[in-house]
Each structure stands twice: as structure tokens, then as C-alpha cells.
Predict the structure.
Amino acid sequence: MIKNKKILVVGAGGFIGGHLVKKLLENKNLITAVDIKPKEYWFQDYENAINHYSTDMKEINNCRKVSKNIDYVFNMACNMGGMGFIENNKAECMQSVLINTNLLIACKENEIKKYFFSSSACAYNKSKQQDVFVEGLKEIDAYPADPEDGYGWEKLFSERMCRHFMEDYGIEVRIARYHNIYGPFGTYDGGREKAPAALCRKIINAKKNDEEIIEVWGDGKQTRSFLYIDDCIEGTLRLFESNYSEPVNIGSDEQVSINQMIDIIENISQIKKLKRDYQLDKPKGVRGRSSNNDLVKKVLNWSFKIRLKDGLKKTYDWMNSEISKHGSNISRFTKS
Ligand code: GDC
């Protein structure tokens, strides 16, 4: 585990970045934490973080400033969200290319030793995700390139930018393709939430308000694999410390349909079975997506540990208490 290093985490105010900083601080690293959001909207507080900045990393001079005297950089920053956000904000999503590009240039100038880029399963070719029961996506399935429009193109292009900075300038890079990460301290409302949080929220609210029906985007038969945040952080840190510089899936082996995930959340909440209002005109994304984990098992000797039902229970309990605290007021988890 990395210890006593000077580490810059960009996107530290977000969901995965927040959990990553917490873990790195536990291991006595010196953290510079950066996010575009004002500090009061960061998803987690860190009493021991040495430096924190609310600044826009699309600007190269900000990248230059915060990457001085740093050993390692984790780029966890992008303008993103679940399907409801990325389908309707493609130009916004693609502008995150400026964060990664300017940060890499600054890292080259400041002689950073190692750089991590958080990519996504959205980088994969769409034609391989047209059926409900698909084989897990292998890393080679990103090419020929036909990723998710907007957000996925940004991720695929940025992966390649990392690769060329390594080849041409010798910066060591590590690239994870995350498969729908979920858990406590994530967005659950406001339009950027992904399916696990959105469906937990709908079921919590149905229970509170004694409602019998929830809205579900699509027909509920679409499939995904979801990875709990603690597994994501462990996989990320193992990858960072490995010698492997090509993109690797960080995902779980459990492929479920959205209907199956709703069944699991209903069991957790102990609510009676809800009616499902399938909304076919809402953003649906690909029909089926899951992670093939052969490569990650081989190069990192790592596999997910937390079963979906256990991860969803922790997520549900956390959200239940947040929703009770905030009621209908806007919480910081609605800002991404
Ligand atoms: O939003 P998401 O989790 O993103 O949606 C998964 C599926 O769940 C979609 O088919 C969506 O229509 C369905 N769904 C049903 N009801 C709801 O209330 C709801 N809200 C949401 N959000 N979805 C609902 C994601 C990207 C991420 C990230 C990951 C990587 O795509 O949005 O930014 O990169 O992929 O795996 P998803 O899995 O399509």
C-alpha cells in the first residue's frame, strides 16, 4: 500500500475521489485535494488533508500550480453522472478532456512519476452491448472505437492521451475502466445519480410515503454489473502499484438486470412488492453491459469481494439516514 507519498487527487470532492482520499490518508500519505466544487459541497470531509483547493482543472495554470512537488497524481475528475445526465450533456462531458490533457502536460513539466486515469465502461464499443445477455466486455472490446457518445468518447480519447504521454515522455500511467461504481457518499438525487442510488431513493421514498408504484427507466430487462466502492478503491490502489500500464476493467462478476436489482432493494427495505411503471422514453443507454475480469485477476490477482446484495444494503442504509436528515432539502450529494 502506498505510504508517505505526496499525492495529488483531482476530483477529491466527488464520490470515488472522496473515498480514495480517505484511504490514502489512513496510510499516512500527504494529500493535496482538488475539486471544482466549493468545499461545502465536497462529498466527504477530511480533517487531516494538508491542502485543499476549489479550482477548475480545465485551466492549465491551475494544473501547473497544484502538481508542483508531488510524487503521484490521481485524476478522478470529470463532469459526469448516470444515464440521465450523460445522454443529455454530451458537450459538458466531453470538455473533461481538457482536465486530463492539461493535467498531463503539467505532470510532464513537474516531472510527476506516476499518473492514474479513471476511465469508464462507457469507453467500450456499443455494438458489443446490444443484447440483454452479453459476454463480459474484455479490454480489447474497446476497439474498433464506437463508444458511448459524448462521455465515452472523452474517456477513450483521454486513455489514449495517457498512453502517448507514457510512450513519448516516460510518465508511468495506470488506467482503470470502472463498471458502475456505487455506495455511500455518492449522488442519489438531482439528475446525476446512477441506477443503484436512484432505485434505492425511489424505494425509500415509496416506503416513507406509502406509495405502491415506482418509475423505472426502460423495460427493466437491461443488464449491468455494479461494483461496490470499497472494492473499487482496493482495485484502484492495486492497479496503481502494479506494473500494468494498459487499461483494465475494475468491475464485479455479478451481472444483473435492473428488475433483479429492484427485487434486491425491495428485500432490503422489507417493503411489499411495488408496481413498476416502465418508462420507455427515458435514457436507457446500452442494452447489456458487464465486466470480463480475466485480465484483472491475472495482472493484479484481484477480484471483487462485496456481493451486490451486501453493497446495496450498506448504500440503502446510508441513503435512508441521509434522506431522513435532509428531507426534501438539497443535500451536498445532489451537486456533482
Ligand atoms: O444511470 P445508469 O446506472 O448508467 O443506468 C443503468 C440502467 O438503469 C439504464 O438502462 C437506465 O435506464 C436504468 N434505470 C432505470 N431506472 C433511474 O431511475 C433508472 N435512474 C437511472 N440513472 N437509471 C435508471 C453508466 C454511466 C456512468 C458510468 C458507468 C460505467 O451507464 O452513466 O457515468 O461511466 O456507466 O459503467 P449506465 O450503467 O447505463
Observations:
- The chain is about 35% helix and 15% strand.
- The mean pLDDT is 96.
